[in-house]
Design goal:
This protein is mainly β. The protein has three helices and 19 strands. The chain has a 17-stranded antiparallel β-sheet that branches. A two-stranded antiparallel ribbon has the order 10-11. Strand 7 and strand 8 form a beta hairpin.
Length: 371
């Protein structure tokens, strides 16, 4: 087996090449006496700083000429290798992708912060949301397709059995127009599957889903070069029964004013509210990368891909001594710089696009316990 394989796979089941929580079925410490832990949280928003997510949009606003994107990606894995079975472990996942027009984010920021509007300004409104929360059991294994000591091909495959506890899939579209510096009219239409309604105040009963997901990976190595492809949620589905569904129109009526004279709305809502059986297709995630070994250091370039978004990255990993390695990385889409430290069986990574009021941040932690 080429030495570069052992050099790439260090630290944890989830491979930290990019920013998404992509599970790599190729890597597993083939030692029955181990327990592998990995956790990650990623929050990105190219319209606002992260402070806005926790303070009613009172953080920094980042104007954009194109559409805006936000990603939330949380994953925890705990598992072990079992002889004859492969890797078996528990997984927790919570993921969401939000896309919107820049007009939508501009208006949301203005009205949330009581900023004066420009009379007559027109806003094209569109916001889409896809997301889910699951608990699952992961099974994965590997197969050596070809090896001659120099050139090596391996494939990895996995299946995840899941219980869904939250689901989101829908959009709102329409328009708004500023009629004065403190008021605006709007007319919106929405189609929305949900377990919790984030569009308007509407309480619903708890519901859950069952489902599955699949992973596939291939690693090609030649001498000190490695190419890798990983696909997650390629056939991922959640089967919901009696999930709430709305198909409604929202119009700017029932207007009141706050103490500063700015309009507040309880919109008139008309349309359909129902419960349905629904198959939610999970968002496929991909990772493509290439690694090059220089002595015992590694240079890696690649990109993650999700929902028509390409997230390029580059990294350099340096072996400081037999116990400690450090990796520096840069992700281009959100402009995140990262530091990844691997000490013996521990691993911690921090990525951000700013230390003061960032709009994107990622923290991950891994631990391999041998007993």
């Amino acid at each position: 087996m080429p030495a570069i394989i052992a050099g790439i796979f260090t630290g944890s089941v989830l491979l930290n090449g990019g920013i998404l929580s992509i599970y790599d079925p190729l890597f597993m410490p083939k030692d029955q006496k181990n327990l592998n832990l990995h956790s990650q949280i990623l929050l990105t928003n190219d319209a606002f700083s992260l402070e806005a997510l926790f303070d009613n949009f009172h953080g920094k606003y980042i104007p954009a000429n194109s559409d805006n994107t936000a990603i939330g990606d949380i994953r925890v894995d705990v598992g072990s290798y079992i002889e004859g079975w492969g890797y078996i472990g528990y997984s927790y996942r919570k993921e969401a992708v939000i896309k919107s027009t820049s007009d939508s984010m501009k208006l949301l920021y203005q009205v949330s912060n009581d900023l004066d509007l420009f009379t007559g300004e027109h806003y094209d409104a569109f916001i889409s949301l896809k997301g889910f929360e699951t608990h699952g059991i992961e099974f994965s294994s590997t197969y050596p397709l070809y090896s001659d000591g120099i050139f090596d091909i391996q494939i990895g495959y996995g299946i995840e059995l899941m219980i869904g506890t939250e689901g989101q899939n829908g959009y709102v579209t329409g328009y708004a127009s500023a009629v004065s510096r403190t008021e605006y009219d709007f007319n919106l239409n929405s189609r929305y599957y949900y377990t919790q309604n984030y569009l308007y105040d509407y309480d619903v009963d708890y519901t859950s889903a069952y489902g599955f997901s699949t992973q596939l990976a291939m690693l090609l190595t030649y001498d000190n070069v490695a190419l890798r492809i990983i696909g997650n949620d390629l056939l991922g589905k959640l089967y919901w029964k009696n999930i709430p569904y709305s198909e409604v129109n929202l119009v700017s009526e029932n207007k009141s004013y706050d103490e500063n004279g700015y309009a507040e709305y309880s919109p008139a809502i008309s349309g359909l509210e129902s419960k349905r059986s629904y198959i939610q297709r999970l968002m496929s995630k991909w990772r493509f990368d290439a690694s090059y070994e220089i002595d015992e250091d590694f240079v890696q370039v690649g990109f993650d891909y999700i929902e028509d978004m390409t997230l390029p990255y580059i990294s350099y990993r340096h072996k400081i001594n037999n116990s400690l390695m450090a990796k520096l990385s840069y992700e281009h889409f959100f402009g995140m710089f990262g530091l990844d430290l691997m000490y013996e069986h521990y691993r911690i990574e921090i990525c951000t696009n700013g230390f003061i009021d960032p709009s994107a941040a990622k923290v991950s932690f891994g631990y391999l316990y041998r007993y």
